[in-house]
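user: At home tonight, take the chain set out below, taking as long as you need, and be ready to discuss the fold:
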Amino acid sequence: MQKFTGTGVAMITPFNTDGSIDWDSLKKTIQHLTNGKIEYIVVLGTTGESATLTHNEKQQIFNFVAEHNTAQLPLVAGIGGNYTQEVIEGYKNYNLDGYSAILSVSPYYNKPNQNGLYQHYKALNDAAPLPIIMYNVPGRTGMNVSADTTLKIAENCKNIIATKEASGNFDQIMQIIKYKPQGFDVISGDDGITLPMIACGASGVISVVANAYPLIFRTWLGFA
């Protein structure tokens, strides 16, 4: 199974002034990240404007990145949402040829309780065609996936291989790192606290700032 360690990048989606996708700039971005020696690319995460693209636009971007991934970096597809069945339908309907994993953000807006969060990820675990990296970002979703819930998911949902943890709560982060099962990774989802997270045992980062400075950021983290 692909391990997602080191510097991953939540790649931007560039647009033209009329709101259409800027394919030339997207191709240049892929090359820029490749030249920056990053370990993997996350396509259509938050930074990739996943919340404001149509299904067809998303599929076009998934295809384009896979086609222009000449360095054959591992690719992660961002497919998440607050409606569990719709996320599962996305797993069935998107062509993910060339992708190694899925990044799936926890449900937003609905504010499910901890059991609801667990049941959501359990359903995704059972349906996903690829390994899943769960994504806890309470500042955006309005609901924190607790350490206990994350550990329960890690123990019982073997197709969920990692969490992108962006709670900023080091008590929670260290509890997950200490008690997680072997083979389950904790990935930083916040550039500013990545270095101390790695010191605590995180496997790396899915970065935003590395869109601009991939090699500099990767070197600063000690992955170069």
Remarks:
- The chain is about 40% helix and 15% strand.
